[in-house]
Design goal:
CATH class of the largest domain: Alpha Beta
Number of helices: 11
Order of helices and strands: EHEHEEEHEHEHEHEHEEEHEHEEHH
Largest sheet: 7 strands, mixed
Radius of gyration: 22 Å
CATH architecture of the largest domain: 3-Layer(aba) Sandwich
Helix content: 25-40%
Distance between the termini: 54 Å
Strand order of the largest sheet: 3-2-1-6-7-14-15
CATH topology of the largest domain: Rossmann fold
Oligomer: single chain
Number of domains: 2
Strand content: 15-25%
Number of strands: 15
């Protein structure tokens, strides 16, 4: 067993319900093992700037159901991409200095593939880390579910339940835009659970013609409304199979800022002269907000406790992963090589088999 006395924890990227439950589990398991825990504010930015706070049992008391993250978050990248390679910037040296000065023996970063990718690249600089996959997009490979996905589904399903009544009353096509840059997990699973009639995901380019035909088919069968769920990263063939993006706006990891496919689709459907009026609801940050579901609270607790266990066992450059009922250590190299994880083909087949277009 390695000589571990202090663990550092940070939360990066987009937030989701369940992060605080994971922080609570990390602190409680660490306390039981006689370890100290410190938190870095606002993701990797806090490690770069040495912005640290102690995390004891009193600090995490009562945060189990609280959404967001008590540590704050940011999309901070201490590396820069040159061609296909990530090169360290001077920020990496500041991270190494903070880890050394604060006597942090291991880090537990909580986030998606960008946050975990930084942890993996820091491994070659001697930083020991155990990641926790957290993203409502559920697109981190190596785990059946990511922290926050289940809670986002609850929001999407609740929204669809409510929108059905007004769609039926006003005989409209309601388009619901949800998150999902590269993978359509939220759109597909949320759409199935919420009874959507058309589901559009990044994995399968769509045409406005086919969407219009699906609406017309429902009209011919006497159903005078339709619910369409579209992932923000869905790719219209009319745009060359590329997503609708805001020109010139990219984050520190090189991702273009998406958004607007719902309104784009509504405009295209109006041009077709359908007898039903399209209206758009963009759920946006509502999907990340609120309290965590019981599933995510349990998953967060298991991931948090397991991350400390992996640190104590001398495992690093790995993340916690749910495989069936088991939480296992998954090498980050394997995770990043397979991310973003596409939606399961079984779920796509299920949607088609029950008549969802």
């Amino acid at each position: 067993m390695p000589n571990v006395k202090r663990i550092g924890v940070l939360t990066g990227g987009g937030d989701s319900p369940g992060i605080n439950a994971a922080l609570r589990a990390i602190v409680r398991r660490a306390a039981a093992a006689g370890l100290e825990v410190v938190g870095f504010r606002d993701g990797w930015k806090g490690v770069i700037e040495d912005d640290v706070v102690p995390l004891g049992l009193a600090d995490v008391s009562g945060i189990l159901p609280v959404g967001g993250t008590i540590l704050g978050t940011s999309r901070t990248n201490p590396f820069i991409k040159e061609g296909k390679e990530w090169k360290p910037t001077p920020k990496v040296d500041r991270i190494l200095e903070t880890v050394k000065t604060r006597k942090v023996d291991a880090l537990i970063p909580i986030g998606g593939d960008d946050t975990l990718g930084v942890a993996h690249r820091l491994a070659s600089h001697g930083v020991r880390a155990v990641g926790i996959p957290q993203t409502i997009d559920n697109d981190v490979a190596g785990t059946d579910y990511c922290l926050g996905f289940h809670s986002a589904l609850a929001v999407v399903t609740d929204a669809l339940d409510k929108l059905h009544t007004t769609a039926h009353a006003h005989h409209r096509v309601l388009i619901v835009e949800v998150m999902g840059r590269d993978s359509g997990w939220i759109a597909l699973v949320g759409g199935i659970a919420g009874g959507a009639d058309v589901i559009l995901v990044p994995e399968e380019p769509f045409s406005v013609h086919d969407v219009g035909k699906a609406i017309e088919h429902r009209l011919e069968s006497g159903r005078r409304f339709s619910i369409i769920v579209v992932a923000e990263g869905a790719r219209p063939v009319e745009l060359g199979g590329k997503p609708v993006a805001q020109e010139g706006r990219v984050d520190q990891f090189g991702h273009p800022q998406l958004g607007g496919v719902g309104y784009w689709l509504a405009g295209e459907l109006e041009k077709k002269g359908l007898p039903l009026t399209p209206r758009v609801t963009v759920l946006a940050y509502l999907q990340r907000g609120g309290v965590a579901t019981p599933f995510d609270r349990m998953l967060a607790t298991r991931f948090g406790a397991a991350a400390v266990e992996f640190v104590l066992a001398g495992k690093h450059d790995v993340m916690t992963g749910l495989r069936g009922h088991d939480v296992v250590a998954v090498p980050l190299a394997e995770v990043l090589a397979q991310s973003p994880k596409p939606v399961a083909r079984e779920f796509l087949a299920l949607a088609r088999n029950i008549g969802v277009r």
